[in-house]
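Lab notebook, design round three. We kept the backbone fixed and only want residue identities now. Task for the bench partner: fill in a sequence for the structure below.
Input structure tokens:
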């Protein structure tokens, strides 16, 4: 039988516990750092979505309380408010639309609509894009529809891509049967 002089050294190496923590750290620390960054990125996405939703409800509530006619400058001001409330790093967009239900024709009609930036105003013909999200209205009833868009760029881009956060909110006018538009 041949003797292997290096076998005792191999056994000592196998049984040695020196440096085990360093090896574990090399394996575990990258995973911990990745997990921390992933949680941070996902939390930031949800924070941004929540900020967009909160801002959208605030804007539709402000519009629903109007008793005077609104105009383009008023809607642009609401979009500036939306940008401030969401702390968006890029330009936000918003579209406000006043929708009325005509019971005779049994269809929704756009009374007025205004989109900020390059957003086109909705018309009765293009209202079908969002009509499924508008609640059932009775004859002559009207609602305010506010749509908001907020661009989102993640802080860490390996888990979340660039997003365009969208929210649609509907509310009835509170103090007047309709919200007028002034040119």
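Proposed sequence:
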């Amino acid at each position: 039988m041949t003797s292997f002089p290096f076998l005792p050294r191999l056994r000592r190496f196998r049984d040695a516990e020196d440096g085990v923590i360093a090896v574990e750290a090399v394996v575990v620390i990258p995973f911990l750092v990745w997990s921390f960054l992933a949680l941070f990125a996902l939390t930031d996405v949800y924070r941004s979505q929540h900020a967009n939703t909160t801002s959208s409800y605030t804007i539709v509530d402000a519009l629903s309380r109007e008793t005077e006619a609104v105009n383009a400058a008023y809607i642009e001001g609401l979009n500036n408010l939306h940008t401030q409330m969401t702390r968006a790093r890029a330009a936000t967009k918003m579209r406000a639309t006043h929708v009325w239900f005509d019971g005779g024709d049994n269809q929704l009609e756009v009374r007025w609509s205004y989109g900020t930036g390059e957003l086109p105003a909705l018309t009765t013909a293009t209202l079908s894009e969002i009509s499924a999200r508008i609640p059932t209205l009775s004859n002559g009833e009207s609602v305010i529809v506010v749509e908001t868009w907020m661009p989102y760029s993640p802080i860490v881009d390996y888990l979340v891509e660039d997003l365009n956060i969208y929210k649609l909110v509907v509310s009835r006018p509170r103090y007047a049967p309709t919200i007028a538009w002034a040119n």
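Keep this in mind before ordering anything: The helical segments are 7-15, 20-64, 72-86.
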